[in-house]
Fold:
Amino acid sequence: MAQDNAAPPSGAGASRTVTRRRFLGGAVAVGTLGALGGLAWRFGPDLFHAAFSPKAAEGAAAAVGTKLFTTCGQCDQECVVTATVRGGVLTKLDGVPGDQKSDGHLCPKGQAGIMELYNPYRLKKPLVRTNPVKGFDVDPGWKEVSWEEATDVVASKLAEILASDGPRAIAGDDFNYIGSFAKALGTPNTYRCGNTCFYGPYATQLAVTGGNFIHADLRPGVTKYILALANTVGTVENPFARQVAQAKAGGAKLVVLDPRLSEAAAKADLWVPIRPGTDQAALLAIINVIIAEDLYDHDYVDSKTVGLDELTAFIQPYTPEWAAAITGVDAATLRGIGRDMGTMRQAVAIIRKGPSRSRKDSWRMVHAWAILNALVGAIDMPGGCIADRSAPLAAVSAAKKAPAPYPEAIDSREKLMPTPGGLYDANLGNFGTQDAFADSIVNGPYPIKFLLCAGANWLHSSPNTDKWVKLLQDRFLTVIDYQMTDTAWLADVVLPCPTYLEREELISAKNYAPLPQVQVRQPVVERLYDTRTEAEIYDLLAEPLGLADYLPPEGEQVFDTRLEPLGLTFDELKAKGFIILDQPFTPTTKFKTPSGKIELCSSVLADAGFDPLPTWVGEPVEPTDEYPLYFVSFNSARTFMSEHAWNEWLNQAEDYGLWINAATAAARGIRSGDNVTVTSPYGRLTAPARITQGIRPDTVALLHGHGHRNTGSAPLTRLGANDNDIARPATAQDHIEWYQSKEEPFANARYRDFTVKIERV
Amino acid sequence: MARWGMTIDLDLCIGCEACTVACKANNFTPSGVSWLRIVKDEAGQFPNVTRLPFPLQCQQCAKAPCVDVCPTGATYVRDDGIVAVNYDKCVGCQYCVLACPYGARTFVEDLAPYYPAGKTEFELFAGLLGGEPDAATGLPGRHQAGVVEKCVFCVQKIESGIAAGLTPGVDADATPACVVTCIAGARVFGDLDDPDSAVSRKASSSGAFRFHEEYGTEPNIYYLPARQLA
Structure:
């Protein structure tokens, strides 16, 4: 029982008294309430393993455990959870009532956090490669080393390259921390997965609306109609899935445009199996109906938008009859959707991350989506889709000390990946897509000799898997991760980091939080293994290079400083779990566009020489005799990006098969469970057949994030297939050409611009 | 004495499997053993096709065929309506597995680890549990190879919750894990003998039905129909 600290009798959510009482009731049940503040876990010696003798645990089994608040990290939605710890073992995770994300409910990924923590294949010690040959059928000859030794290997390599080639030969990819480390080193070459994830839609919205209004704010009784399209994440995200379910229970009509009978489509009032890549045409037809029949929200459009006249003229040819031939959806259905959306207040169309990684013309689709939501008065309105409301946390200094001028500051024009400038460069720091990054490493203007990948797992998040394998052969790769991903398998040094259940963070809620919410992430057990957080790792690497002072300050003092405007300390937040600020949701009245309004006809796009309205330029791809089928991929409620293929609790409830329509399969002699190859112009993969009626006969679909190839992770991670093996890559030069020819204003991955053929193995 | 029951709204269930995983986490079931599953059968032909996720677990029958065939009395119906298994009496004959019309019972062949690398700390902890669900701690009983297992409505949570003054179906810590975690709010739990309980109201609402009512098993789980099939 040594490890059971007493839990605080804390209220969950200061703003909801009913919730608070309910939670207190729950807390009483555990019966081991202690004094506030007695819960601090600190990193230290490996107490967990010392304490975990059968005898200790036997005593612990009779104990009722400790509850700690923390924040889920199984996807990017950050639900608040309580962790129950018994005898030092995490035995239970629950949602927290009142939290805007979970409201007491966790999705399968959230529940499976226990197996994320205790997965025996996790990275446990720093690893250094002894076999210089890299490949999936090659043993890297991993040698476990101390942090001192690992740091020495990496820092020496950095010093060597800084001396021989200068900082620009160093490039990296990390969502949170690498910016300051790169700045300290002096390299402009930091990239992020953002352009492959959600920047595409964001960038178009930024031009049209001046903000990011992508997150649904569905409310039961308020939201009457939901149109979900363009590879909506659907049930993948707990907060969104809960919103859809609640709105539906409150009487909302759900219509899903998807070539596949997805989890969301299976629950829809109407499933529209649209031809892949033609969502924009459907949206144009829906807009046409709303304009032609004068069904738009006049109050909203008059007060919050400009460009209605231009839109009215533009939309005329895009009738439902026109769209029917392109989308494969009959005109009456499209007209019905337009009439429903125009007459049911509040209606809303929902997209998520899909457009950012699908097709070159996705930006036009996103523009049409924004126009539709403006016409039905859904942008930043309760029951529609809203921008994040963030809490006013204090800023902290960017560096530990006010340092001397940064070392050799490199002109950003020397970035590895050339860009066309203009609107393209104005987009979110212009990180470029990961496939273009891979190409630039090989074909760029100067050699890249050191690569750092923190969590991005390039081999599963971008096309060109073979190219990555080749380019990593003679380049030094350092990977920071907590699982042996395919990218980590090709590293020279692997630096293990803790899972979200062993970390401490202050989190300001984003996504699906209409009210500002601040929440805690705290370690619920001692770190299981010899791991370091990214911040700690960069500190370790910076120290021998004399760069430590340039990195940002970390730790609880920083959290306390940031929390000062809220009159709260980090310790107090640990006890509360989260707080919601008493700032009622107020719809935006002034948009950050040149006119201050939503620009249906975009002046930002026009000024940059692009189409100010979403003209249909034709189907991006069409089936051919050689490649007769469309290919789409998707996430399930058991996956997030390319994560969790290694989690056995999730795997035992998963289905990795390639979705093939029964008629399509029969014509090729394919039976359920047969191994099937999928060949595109860019590669080939093999997956077991999942025969279904729930997909268009001209389309096959595959679950993303499975089919890992390395032998260092749990065997089950190799089930399924990696959709990126057949995806279409692009180069930085392609993006420049598309920008200059005014085809595409932003770096948008076009991984699905191809068709495939399938064959039984 | 209450009679515990559940309603599952098929209109709301999205088949995400949160309940399946929550069941594992709360009942420590061994690899390959799941006390609940979601049947996702399709019906119809493209494009007129439906796939209705149908959560299936022990229906907690008042007239349980598994109890009738059990030669040792290991399976029995408790006073609160929960069908329970006494592992000490179970000889693993599996008559009950065949007799259950809902396919809700699982014979545990072995206690294989989830990962070939060996048991996790969580599984080691589970191996040290007491033999029976524990009303003091809210922990489930220890699993054994060679016996038949099934959903018991998280009886350990119900009992420990009641002991702490909580109300099953109202308070999370006294309510089955699948009900607590359901992200769609499809599951409701409570006392079917209390006509004012939420579960009673749902169970007596229009269209509510019990799975294979014609078998005369008198389940304590009621399903609410899906709009799309109504």
Remarks:
- Chain B touches chain A through 63 residues (CB under 8 Å).
